[in-house]
Write a structure and sequence with these properties.
By secondary structure, the chain is an alpha/beta fold. The protein contains twelve helices and eight strands.
């Protein structure tokens, strides 16, 4: 039997002393958690039209924390053999019926088997309490999607990629750093949620004084939440819009608060995340080991996107000739949510095909 080299932390905590009898006893407690019976909508309730070029169905899978995730699976009609597969999620605070589903369906039209999933605690996925975000659990959600895809009979397990939109673009890159099964990653109009949580937009709040003030306020909110027996919501996209807001806030409103992108299960469309969800993101840094990511990455950003600096500065951390930065002319952040005249879908598909080739 090949000896498994365990990280030092597992050895320190006593894992090295487990004998065969102990392992037998432990097995009853270490199986993958059973899937929760979720209530899934049967009708087409996406904010984009259904394609006649793909087959669609709902699927579920379980992550390493025992949370059952809900996803829409898109398969090219009349597909044969084992297909390259892509898991899609985002934007941060959105649901699979919005931008991620559009990307997934478009890529399925181009020959990929795809899933668009709701992150833990959101949308149709499981997890309590609702609307909680976590840098660890959300990264895990992508790896759980890879788990699921890797065992599908019509998927080539050696050709699995992921795509994240907005905040999930940064989460996707972080997942790829940790999970080499992810052969290619696309981050579209990406945010680094750890950076913006700790430093504010354009790093305007990057000081220990401002962070400590935020920490004190959030800690007090935790106390109040526990006393009240409920979690305060931070509110979704601001509505109605004040006259003096930035253009990108107006762009968010134009997507999430109008028929263009509104969805009743989306926190961005309704009342937002639990206020205290920002706490772990302030205490966590993505991309510390970005230079060690060997597999392919494509970062796509709009020329006019307020978030462009996240993508450009993250790209500088990556190494290798399989990393690309694509700036879309005359495109804003939200243009890359649903504007198919601006989203470079064919280039994205070509990127996945290039770095997830057959028989390699």
């Amino acid at each position: 039997m090949k000896k498994l080299l365990l990280p030092a932390i597992l050895l320190i905590t006593g894992m090295s002393t487990i004998n065969s009898q102990n392992m037998t006893n432990l097995n009853t407690n270490t199986s993958i958690a059973p899937a929760e019976q979720l209530t899934l909508t049967s009708e087409w309730d996406k904010v984009f039209p259904k394609s006649e070029k793909v087959d669609h169905r709902k699927v579920t899978f379980v992550n390493r924390y025992g949370i059952t995730l809900a996803a829409d699976m898109y398969i090219p009609k009349n597909a044969e053999g084992k297909l390259a597969a892509i898991a899609v999620s985002g934007p941060f605070g959105a649901v699979k019926e919005q931008s991620s589903g559009l990307y997934a369906q478009q890529l399925a039209e181009r020959g990929f088997l795809t899933i668009a999933f709701d992150p833990s605690f959101t949308g149709e996925s499981g997890g309590q309490p609702r609307r909680v975000a976590s840098p660890d659990i959300n990264v895990e959600d992508f790896s759980a999607a890879v788990d699921f895809l890797s065992v599908q009979p019509n998927v080539d397990a050696d050709r699995i990629g992921i795509l994240g939109v907005c905040g999930w673009g940064g989460i996707a890159i972080q997942a790829a750093i940790n999970d080499p099964r992810i052969k290619a990653t696309v981050a579209s109009t990406m945010y680094d949620m750890t950076r913006v949580s700790a430093n504010g937009y354009f790093d305007a709040d990057n000081s220990k004084e401002k962070r400590n003030a935020t920490r004190k306020a959030l800690a007090q909110q935790r106390t109040e939440d526990y006393q009240n027996g409920s979690y305060q919501r931070a509110g979704g996209v601001i509505d109605p819009l004040p006259d003096d807001v930035s253009q990108f806030v107006k762009d968010y409103h134009a997507y999430y608060k109008t028929p263009r992108g509104y969805h009743e299960r989306s926190g961005n469309s309704t009342d937002g995340w639990n206020t205290t969800s920002v706490m772990p993101f302030m205490n966590f840094k993505f991309f510390e080991y970005a230079g060690e990511l060997e597999n392919a990455v494509l970062i796509v950003h709009g020329e006019k996107a307020h978030s462009r600096y996240f993508g450009e500065e993250t790209f500088k951390l990556l190494h290798g000739d399989n990393k690309e930065l694509l700036i879309v002319a005359d495109a804003s952040h939200c243009d890359l949510y649903d504007n198919l005249d601006k989203i470079p879908m064919n280039q994205i598909a070509t990127f996945f095909t290039t770095w997830m080739p057959e028989n390699k």
